[in-house]
Each structure stands twice: as C-alpha cells, then as structure tokens.
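Hi support team,

I've been running sequence recovery on a batch of backbones for a student project. Most finish fine, but this one hangs at about 90% for roughly twenty minutes before it completes. I'm not sure whether the input is malformed or the queue is just slow. I've pasted the structure tokens below so you can try to reproduce it. Let me know if you need the job ID as well.

Thanks,
M.K.
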C-alpha cells in the first residue's frame, strides 16, 4: 500500500505544473484526497481537497482560480493542476488520502518557483 506524489520541479513565476498522487495497493475511489504543502519554517497547510461522492472540491484562498484538483479513477490518480505559479507557492507538496480512520500520506514532491 503506497501513495506516491510526483511532478514537482523548478519553474519560473507564471509557469504551470501538474502534480500527481498515485495509489498502489488500494483504490482512491473511496478516499477523500487532499493536497498539502509545507514551506521552510512554516506549518503544513492544506491547499485543496476533493470529496469521494460528488467530487466537490475546495481550495485555499491563495490558490483559488490558479489550482485545480482532478480525479482520474481509471488511473487511480488525483492531480493538482497548478498555473500562474508564484514564488510563494514554493514548498514541498504532499497528498493525503483519508477514509474514516484510515489515511495515507505521500512522500512529498518539491515545487520551487523562482526567476
């Protein structure tokens, strides 16, 4: 059972990235998924999440209109499409899957936005 986050990188302000959260050994269909980030010296914060039932999504104010969370059940993966990236988006990004009392964390992927 594993949750794998990938897709991070070094980009310039205004660029886009797509992060992927892929599960192995279990199905993400029944799990609520959240994307979190942690910048150096700061606490981990949730930037987006998506429910299991009707796919309702939520975004932290600073990323609204720039980030989109999407499920691809066929690939057992949840994506975080990030556009118009800003230096303040620099952080390690983690995905989190939760179903009642069971939860998994991905290992994190670094996103660096700098000119």
């Amino acid at each position: 059972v594993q949750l794998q986050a990938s897709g991070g990188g070094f980009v310039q302000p205004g660029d886009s990235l797509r992060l992927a959260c892929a599960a192995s050994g279990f199905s993400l269909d029944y799990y609520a998924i959240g994307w979190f980030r942690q910048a150096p010296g700061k606490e981990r914060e949730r930037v987006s999440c998506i429910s299991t039932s009707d796919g309702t999504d939520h975004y932290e104010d600073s990323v609204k209109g720039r980030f989109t969370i999407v499920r691809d059940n066929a690939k057992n993966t949840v994506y975080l499409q990030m556009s118009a990236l800003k230096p303040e988006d620099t952080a390690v990004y983690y995905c989190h899957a939760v179903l009642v009392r069971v939860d998994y964390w991905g290992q994190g992927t670094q996103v660096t936005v700098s000119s």
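--
Follow-up from support: It reproduced on our side and the slowdown came from queue contention, not your input. The chain has a mean pLDDT of 95. No action needed from you.
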